[in-house]
Amino acid sequence: MWQPRRAQWSIIWIVTVLVILAWPPDDGRSLFVKALNRAADPFSTLAAWPAPLPIGLGDDGDAVSAHDGQEAEYYRQYNSSPVTRWRMDLKAARDPIDPSTARQLLVGIAVLSALAAWRLGRTR
User: Fold this and answer.
1) Across the chain, how many H-helices and E-strands are there?
2) 111 FRET partner, CA 20 to 30 A, in 21, 57, 101, 124?
3) What residue ranges do the domains of the chain occupy?
4) Is-above-0.85 flag for pTM?
């Protein structure tokens, strides 16, 4: 029975972890991006960009004031320091490419890595 050598195991493990972390779901973010978002704000202390004000609440002064207050807090934190700005950007980060394209790239990387591992197993 075939047993991978050390170099082959290294390729197999690295590519497997990469594919698991980077594989995007149908909706939402990949596991890597979710971990990045969580690491940027582990205790949810940073303000998030408020949702748009619904059309029907445009005439409600209290709702508009509350929404403006949320925006003001967001901008206050965002402009407080470069580190906080960087953390807020990481907290709101999304996957950089379309999920279908990411899946195609990850399958290509996995196939090429399998070929490389197979090539390393050649006897001379």
Assistant:
1) 5, 0
2) 124
3) 1-30+95-124, 47-93
4) no
